[in-house]
Amino acid sequence: MSQTLPPIAAARLPALLAALPKAELHMHIEGSLEPEMIFALAARNGVALPYASVDELRRAYAFTDLQSFLDIYYAGASVLRTEQDFHDMGMAYFERAAADQVRRAEIFFDPQTHTARGVPIATVIRGLARACADAQARHGLSAALILCFLRHLSEREAFETLEDALPLREHVIGVGLDSSELGHPPEKFARVFARCRELGFRLVAHAGEEGPPDYIRRALDVLSVERIDHGVQAVHDTALMQRLAAERIPLTVCPLSNQKLRVFPELRDHNLKALLDAGLCATVNSDDPAYFGGYVNDNFQAVFAATGLTAQHAWQLAHNSFEASFAAAADKRRWRQQLDECFERHRT
Ligand code: HPA
Ligand code: ZN
After folding, report:
1. Residue 170's domain spans which residues?
2. Domain count, the chain
3. Using H for helix, E for strand and C for coil, what is the string for the chain?
4. Which ligand minimizes its atom distance to the CA of 30?
5. In the prediction, which pLDDT does 120 show?
6. Catalytic option among 34, 83, 209, 210
7. What are the residue ranges in the chain where pLDDT is below 70?
């Protein structure tokens, strides 16, 4: 979609990005747990940590690939025990998101990480749902929860998690698929996604982060997902790129995550511009902001500085984020109007 925009000098781009109204659609709430909060919750709950200090924990955040990150991310989540813990984690994220002008956040949570430690799923969902309600009341930030199945576990365990969550389904807008991608293809979860679809959940899945373009195709064809999380490997498949553009299938791209997990050697090598210029509905998101060096606006600033994106790309990314969200049409219209007003305010 091309749009005639007010002229904006390159020097004003950082201020524009900071002020841009946006939706964040790919953020794992357990990945927003800052080291300081990990230590505070460990003390509150009497959990022993294998790190002596916040600094020592932070120094351990040196990743070489997705799995090296996941190991430390699941360990960090072990401090979460009570409904209040989940609420406090959610609110800490929503405060940051509101400051970054996020109007809508659709956040992932990983119930199996917690139920495996004996934390009831109701504790997780009730705490996060209360944080979503508070985000709306305090910040006017519209928030929704997406339950992710861990793909390194079995489909049977995913079905059990779904059953467990159904009494609280009013709080869950959709389901997703995350964790170790390679060796755990989409079709492993075909039946559980079909059931979720029958139940009326919105469907998304991580695909094409480290895995091949064909995992993206199978997530679409076998799981019937509506959005692809990451999806950056699509550039290696011309026919798939054409399909993603023609069908306006959103990709929730996470630049700093891709840099930290070495999906691209350097941020300047990131393919976000190629995805946008090919007409795909790409968006910018933070994935696991406490681990990858920044929240959503940090992702915007870093990828724009590294790859030379323009104000036109900024408008497209924000517009895409609202288009790709599962929010009501009236909300989307209001946020798009705020986007155009933001451009007028930054006119040179
Ligand atoms: N990929 C897969 N699983 C995840 C991620 C990710 O980037 N972040 C948290 N769980
Ligand atoms: Zn992710």
Report:
1. 10-347
2. 1
3. CCCCCCCCCHHHHHHHHHHCCEEECCEEHHHHCCHHHHHHHHHHHCCCCCCCCHHHHHHCCCCCCHHHHHHHHHHHHHHCCCHHHHHHHHHHHHHHHHHCCEEEEEEEECHHHHHCCCCCHHHHHHHHHHHHHHHHHHHCCEEEEEEEEECCCCHHHHHHHHHHHHHHHHHEEEEEEECCCCCCCHHHHHHHHHHHHHCCCEEEEEECCCCCHHHHHHHHHCCCCCEEEECHHHHHCHHHHHHHHHCCCCEEECHHHHHHCCCCCCHHHCCHHHHHHCCCCEEECCECHHHHCCCHHHHHHHHHHHHCCCHHHHHHHHHHHHHHCCCCHHHHHHHHHHHHHHHHHCCC
4. 1
5. 98
6. 209
7. 1-2
